[in-house]
Specification:
This protein has 72 residues and is mainly α. The protein is built from one helix and no strands. The model has no long low-confidence stretch (mean pLDDT 90).
């Protein structure tokens, strides 16, 4: 075989290895991003619950403050 054929085969093999490793890296990075998005979504679901709890606590504090003023 001539040297041009060897060079072409080695170039092709290098292209295959590079493409495969690039696809694996891209797949890994997408999985990591999906994990981060899932964490963010969980946080976003909890915010309205926390806001509602804060409203309840603010009302309780206001009631306690009102009761304390009436006792004086």
């Amino acid at each position: 075989m001539s040297s041009e054929i060897w060079v072409a085969l080695l170039s092709f093999a290098g292209t295959l290895v590079g493409s495969y490793s690039g696809l694996k890296l891209t797949s890994y990075r997408i999985q990591q991003l999906e994990k981060k998005v899932e964490e963010h979504n969980n946080f976003a679901r909890r915010i309205p619950v926390l806001e509602e709890k804060m409203k309840v606590e603010e009302h309780r504090i206001a009631d306690l403050e009102g009761a304390a003023k009436h006792e004086k």
